[in-house]
Amino acid sequence: MKMAAEVRWLLVFLVFSAFSAVLGENFHRKFEYKYSFKPPYLAQKDGSVPFWEYGGNAIASAENVRVAPSLRSQKGAIWVKQPINFEWWEVDIMFRVTGRGRIGADGLAFWYTSAKGAYNGTVFGSSDQWNGLGIFFDSFDNDNKHNNPYIMAVLNDGTKVFDHANDGTTQLLAGCLRDFRNKPFATRARIEYYKNVLTLLFHSGMTNNEQDYEACFRAENVFLPEHGYFGISAATGGLADDHDVIHFLTTSLHPPGPSPIDGHRVSSEDQIKLSQEYQDYQKKLDQQKEEYHREHPDERRDKNEFEDYFETDNQRELRQIFSGQSQMFNALKELNRKLDEIVGRQERTLSLISQGQVGGTHTGMAGQGEGYRPTDTIRRQEVDAVLNNQNIIISTAQEIRSFVGEVNSKTDSILSNQARAPTAQVQPMGYDYQSLISEMRDGLNTLKRDMAQTNAKLTVPDCPSTNCLTTMMFLLFVAIQMIILLGYSVYRDNKEAQAKKFY
Ligand SMILES: [Ca+2]
Ligand SMILES: [Ca+2]
Questions:
Q1: Residue 232 in 3-state DSSP?
Q2: Which residues form the signal peptide (predicted)?
Q3: β-strand pairing of 28-31 with 242-254
Q4: pTM score, two decimals?
């Protein structure tokens, strides 16, 4: 029993750990500030971006990095100073590609390569024949297949030359058709590289909702060089867009489980260092502000402050249009979701019906679809027939019952008649008379026998051969007896009549 309990606990533990492993894609995340930039104060006063280097036609401001401005044939790039010291990562880039033309050029590129690329290269502003990953936001449709703007990932081992003429379609690992130009809000790309799976989520910039990322692609078995460099580049051609990167946020991803102890220590050290740096930076900034205010008159400051509160009619109109549009977009999205749900249900129902048709009409729930009508009609008819039959049976049974009752009563009467029959038949004469008659017959027989004996006695000794008592004499004797009896009875009747008269 003790063993069983232990086994049970082990099972519980195993199930629990399996469950947590399933849920356990919540790897450890760590924000890597040394591989990131973001506003405000993206660039310092001297124009440098901490931990980054930019060149070519790129310009960094406090709010963004204009990697390539909207002028013809511009090329620029920004590369991180240090190679990364972690294996898996996620990079979130917020950018805007804007231009007055209906078509723009050339595009923006995200890089993760074994070495830093150039600042004025031929592939979206940086080096060709790179070793690693390039993700291109290609605005211009070079191959004229009407499939741009396009987002694509291209892997290179340092040997391939990018196929600009075909927009890289012969080389791409994965991609998706997305319009990222001239959006009301900044567009975003979230690139994740974890356990050799590369995914790209894209935020269309149609809403201001932080959660509106959609999958662009997912590629497995992607092997990137270790300790590479992050970079962003952009280029313009005959047509030109502004290519602004607002933020570049890097997060290192660590597999679930106990996080490395030294990593923890380093991060806490880093935190202390970072907060120290931040405080220093803040102090410097405050000093600069004070100096600025001292140097410049108040009116200018006021003008700058109030600029934020005003908007032109066009701006207001646009803002209202955008807010209305984003509401419409949300409503449409909700509708789309519900429609999907309905379509799903319909398909499920259809599959059930087809199952029902294949498996016959009498398979429970499945038979209720197509088989409903004929089955029900037949059943109704059957029910009607059964009801009719039942009614007939009932009426027949009633008839039979009444008939049986009749028979019963008749039998009763017959039985009672039979029971009364002997009395009824013999009643006029009376039972006593019968026995009296038989007695009288017996008596007469006895009398005859006695008379015969007497005759024999009389004949043999005393009487002559002729009878002593003749028949005449006997009859006479009987007649006299009868007369006496009659006379008595007449006398008795008269006496009774007389007695009745007295009353
Ligand atoms: Ca192109
Ligand atoms: Ca194309």
A1: strand
A2: 1-24
A3: antiparallel
A4: 0.54
